[in-house]
UniProtKB/TrEMBL annotation:
UniProt protein name: Long wavelength-sensitive opsin
Biased segments, Polar residues type: 361-372
Keyword Glycoprotein part of the UniProt annotation: yes
Family classification: Belongs to the G-protein coupled receptor 1 family. Opsin subfamily.
GO cellular component, one term: membrane
Length: 381
């Protein structure tokens, strides 16, 4: 008894599809075969050695990016709406949170639909100009998000570490920082268009990014310098800020406990949680922020470094993971910087009661819960 005899309608068709895919992977077909002719001049010869990717990967990538896009657009759109329509949340510090959510919102608006369409056709279908726009927006909004996170860390450092001596952030100061972030990011974004590196299809042929396969050191230098100013510098600044933030809060809590002992009371805080100290809560926020940073951008950086230093072979399948992790950053940013904010959750509950994200009184009184907008928690700043 043959397979076909078990299902005379479906069996032969499935066998034909399987045999066709097997033949393709065993033939001279490559991952570049479906690329439109007007895009071939942008494809590096490196990719011609790889057979076509299994359609399953294109389907999974398209589905994943589609889901991430929907969650990010809804989540970041909600953050922007709540923060801009709630009077108690209209503060200078929260302008940075809104800028972060707005950047992530635009990133997925530009990139998610295009990626889904390309995954459906299993290649890039929007032409060279579309490739430039796609890669430009990814670089621009990614850099804006990274440096906005850095400015948020600076704001926390200024309020928590410097305390009363800190110069409070004003509306004009926040807007000036935001303008500087966008101009600085735009500078790095347009550099490849003017000849310092270039934007090309990545190995899976459904996305575009920097050319990390090019052997020219002039082209490689862009990725090296870019990584210094858009990865290492903000990362080190965030770590520096949170190190001293946690250290300052720990010292403050230690002083509070010592004072409580002298006064022969259990605690000077009426709403302090029994088993969770403020410095532990703040340390968790800091650890989460830095960990998510690594999860989002390190895979993409590693892929770029693998290309320019030729430390390991890069396959089309490898390039998928950089895209997924980097775009996932736009999903959990609103969780870290928005939903973890008790006043945001209270406003969300008022405007959308069905979401039921109202904070408990303990959360509202927690020192660590004000990490995203510490200046609201400390009027002296």
């Amino acid at each position: 008894m043959t397979i076909a005899s078990l299902d005379p309608g479906l069996g032969p068709a499935m066998l034909d599809v399987w045999n066709g895919q097997t033949a393709a992977f065993g033939s001279n077909q490559t991952v570049v075969d479906k690329v439109p002719p007007d895009m071939l001049h942008l494809v590096d010869p490196h990719w011609y050695q790889f057979p076509p990717m299994n359609p399953m990967w294109h389907g999974l990538l398209g589905f994943t990016i589609g889901v991430l896009g929907f969650i990010s657009i809804a989540g970041n759109g909600m953050v922007v709406y709540i923060f801009t329509t709630t009077k108690s949340l209209k503060t200078p510090s929260n302008l940075l949170v809104v800028n972060l959510a707005f950047s992530d919102f635009l990133m997925m608006c530009f990139m998610s639909p295009a990626m889904v369409v390309n995954c459906y056709y299993e290649t890039w279908v929007f032409g060279p100009l579309g490739c430039d726009i796609y890669a430009c927006t990814g670089s621009l909004f990614g850099s804006v998000s990274i440096w906005t996170m850095t400015m948020i860390a600076f704001d926390r450092y200024n309020v928590i570490v410097k305390g009363i001596a800190a110069k409070p952030l004003t509306i004009n100061g926040a807007l000036l920082r935001i303008l500087g972030i966008w101009l600085f990011s735009l500078l790095w974004t347009v550099a490849p268009i003017f000849g310092w590196n270039r934007y090309v299809p990545e190995g899976n042929m459904t996305a575009c990014g920097t050319d990390y396969i090019n052997k020219s050191w002039f082209s490689r230098s862009y990725i090296l310098v870019y990584s210094v100013f858009v990865y290492y510098a903000p990362l080190l600044l965030i770590i520096y800020s949170y190190f001293f933030i946690v250290q300052a809060v720990a010292a403050h809590e230690r002083a509070m406990r010592e004072q409580a002992k002298k006064m022969n009371v259990a605690s000077l805080r009426s709403s302090e949680a029994a088993n969770t100290s403020a410095e532990c809560k703040l340390a968790k926020v800091a650890l989460m922020t830095i960990s998510l940073w690594f999860m989002a951008w390190t895979p993409y950086l590693i892929i770029n470094y693998m290309g320019i230093f030729e430390t390991a072979p890069i396959s089309p399948l490898t390039t998928i993971w950089g895209s997924v992790f980097a775009k996932a950053n736009a999903v959990y940013n609103p969780i870290v910087y928005g939903i973890s904010h008790p006043k945001y959750r209270a406003a969300l509950y008022q405007k959308f009661p069905s979401l039921a994200c109202q904070p408990s009184p303990e959360e509202s009184g927690s020192v660590a819960s004000g990490a995203t907008t510490a200046c609201e928690e400390k009027p002296s700043a």
